[in-house]
Amino acid sequence: MNSNERTNLIRRITEIKGLTDSERSTLLGLLREIRPYGLVWEDKTEKAEDRLRNELPVLTEVKERAVISGSNDTPNHILIEGDNLEALTTLAYTHAGRIDVIYIDPPYNTGNRDFAYNDSFVDREDEYKHSKWLSFMNRRLRIAKRLLSDKGFIFISIDDNEQAQLKLLCDEIFGGRNFVASPVRRRRNSQANLSQNISTIHEYVLIYRKTDCALLNKVKANIDLSEYKNPDNDPRGPYKTMPCTNKGGSRYAITTPTGLTIEDEWRFKEETYRELEADGRLVFPKGGNGKPRYKLFLHEKERNGVIDNSWWDFLESNQEGAIMLKQIVGDVFNNPKPVGLIAHILKLGSSKDSTILDFFAGSGTTLHATMQLNAEDGGHRQCILVTNNENGICENVTYERNKRVICGYTTPKGEQVAGLTENNLRYYKTDFAPRTRSVQNMRRLVNLSTDMLCIKEDLYAEQPTFCGERTYKNIFRYFDDERKQMLVIYREEAIDHLAELIYGMEVTDKIKIYVFSPGEDPWTDSFEHVADKVELCALPAAIYNAYLRILPKKKDAAATPERDEAEKPVNGMLNFTDKRGEG
Questions:
Q1: How many helices (H) and strands (E) does the chain have?
Q2: Among candidates 365, 265, 380, which has minimal Cα distance to 322?
Q3: Which residues are 384's β-sheet partners?
């Protein structure tokens, strides 16, 4: 049974009349138990998943750790400290369908204290070793798929401990038809005595795409410049010649410059051959009597690139990655991936304005590679990193490394390395709001979600006033960076007055307005007379809807009323105060 047949059968079961709810549920349950070819494992729960049954994750900025260049055009990179399952859930709201490249280097589950499950390292003799790892990866990869854009790719580093299982898991999640390749990467420069049999010096990079319309970029050709000459001073520059003949090609007769007629099977159709002839791209050896060859110009080879292959032995090794990291922050992290590997991946999968995600960020190589590639090609790629802070890794390694890469640093030998200053780095931590939908909890969620809204809109320039009115932390806040505008309204009592202020504004682009609403309606009637100036979104409904298919199941209570008296506008002006006593 293929997926379409399965979907149709489910629909037919839901439409059958005469079945009780219990009977219908039993039939659907039996159908879902019938698995196609693929992995079967015993699912293991984890603490992060259990926490999400009761709480909703949000992101809050640690403003004192921000590294800001001061330019509005500078890419904003995001570092999130927290469990990556919780962080991925928040990104399902801020970045669903917007990530172009995901690179991850997950734990390889070697049994050498590299994979912790529920705060305990998984031993190589653990009978549920693979089940725990697959449960862990399955939850995260399913969210990752939702984050990818239609042109997006995911690249996953892995070795033989879990490569076979990961391939089957990814076939199930992304679809076997979306498997691209599994390049073999040389990870060590030399043989090491790590085994009594064969010294393993390679690992894999599994590549999957979101849809079959996604194509990897070609890569720079590895060109032997000695092959390219320009003996006839062609203004198009150096070239090498290639044969025009081809077995099984088009047969027709051509005439050489000396009048000799040659009939053969040619690489090109006759029409194409005549175009090459007219363009001066043909060379006739043997004084003009030999079979023609066509010119392949160096500048075209460099511009067009070549399709990459699955043998990656030309990239930096892990040892070289460790040497670079040591130069920046010292000997603080084992086996970092090298910048060259991630840069190569980004060249394959990204464009100059892509958004990149690494939710096993480790030492932060992915952001380093992103910034370096932007500096090389003038790109505006943005990168999101996620890592926990076990043993201080997020603060002391991931953050510190990339802060120094932006600001510049001094190597242990005293050499000064200039910073990649045209980058912003913003630091966030995961926080939580109660999942039960009381009005009080809904308000708390909206109040805590503002930093997520800034990430979602890529808009961080908060203003102290709006149309001459002072802003208040818990009433409304206004953001404007001269590219776009965002108004976040926490109290519905302020809506009518703010709508009147907007009525008197001249706007080029619509103001994005996020407004608290106990339901799905973002107070459309109140903004009806300025509908051409605003784009409305009801909170927290938009967040609930984004989390709906990601969070583990929990039966939510109905919304309950709260006793809550808010300040009212006085003399047509807002007269709110907040606990900070500041706008």
A1: 18, 27
A2: 365
A3: 78, 357
